[in-house]
Amino acid sequence: MFFGNFKYIIKYIYGDIMTFRFFIALFALLTFVEAGTLKGHVKYDGKAPKPKRLRMDADPVCGSSHSGPVYSENFKMAKNGSMAEALVYLKNVRYSGGVPSEPAVLDQKGCIYVPHVFGMMAGQELLIKNSDATLHNIHSMPKVNKEFNFAMPKVVKKKKSTFAKSEPDPFYIKCDVHPWMKTWVLVSDHPYYAVTDTDGNFSIDNIPAGTYEVVCWQEKFGSKRAITSTVTIGDGETTKDFVFSRPKKK
Ligand SMILES: [Cu+2]
Known about the structure:
The protein has 250 residues and is mostly beta strands.
């Protein structure tokens, strides 16, 4: 009788340990495995428009800072169709990981904004530099946030700003002194965005597993003709390519 009870108790404890182990394993799986990378390529299926030459002569400082002609940066396509400076970003992501401690940096150099397209997080610091020996007036055109609009005389080399809220679409920042100066920014409430390199490639890391809406935006096509798709991220790499095509004539 006693022996029978003892066996039962041992069996009971053993079963309990196994259940405990099972939950530990399940918890580990849910916590650590589920993040992946989204990679891809952006191209244009057609002939590139003729690049427009920028006329900077109105400000001798701008003109003299370039040795050759300067062209508009709104359509950067390689011979094989690969598109640089397209923004790829996820939509409707819940993120609570905080804001990067490093600022996003925007320079005014040779009367051109560097970078021409970039992403940053809402609340992240934006460091605006003036590398030119001339006056710029930097003016943001957001939809949700308040505009900023201030002069940066040649002696002012740095200014700090930020956008408090995320924006639904990329918007531009312009110079009121030099009408050709424009840069495009995505202000995001999560870090899952990227800008394509000169080969048209992008990579977004550490995305929590799940199904998301993904947007590919390019300046010339604008928000109305941005490409929207769905992507499912799991452990490892997921590939998503985007092809812009020539708009059909009506
Ligand atoms: Cu300017």
